[in-house]
Design goal:
It is a single chain. The protein has 89 residues and is α+β, with helices and mostly antiparallel strands. The protein has one helix and six strands, in the order αββββββ. Strands 1-2-3-6-5-4 form a six-stranded antiparallel barrel. β2 and β3 form a beta hairpin.
């Protein structure tokens, strides 16, 4: 039983590490400025388009910020703020 639990934990850690490798830095091209409001359509410098579905309404008002996008987890991070996003294009 103990070996089974350890094996399951190793699989979980490995899976999490693989997902984290899919995250990358990218710049928000549109909207400009980026406000971090729910429902915003976000175009990134890699050409992908996302929709902010977190509805945090932070009113950040930052121009072309660099963010970390994690497509597999559908999360986007700017500074210490994490947004739930869905890819639309």
């Amino acid at each position: 039983m103990r070996k089974l639990i350890v094996s399951a934990l190793l699989i979980l850690v490995t899976t999490t590490a693989v997902r984290a490798e899919n995250c990358y830095n990218v710049v928000i091209q549109d909207p400009n400025p980026f406000n971090g409001n729910g429902g915003e359509r976000i175009t990134l410098s890699d050409g992908s388009v996302w929709k902010n579905i977190s509805y945090l309404n932070l009113h950040l008002n930052v121009s072309h910020p660099t963010v970390i996008i994690c497509p597999d987890e559908e999360k986007m991070t700017i500074n210490d703020k994490v947004f739930q996003v869905v890819r639309t294009q």
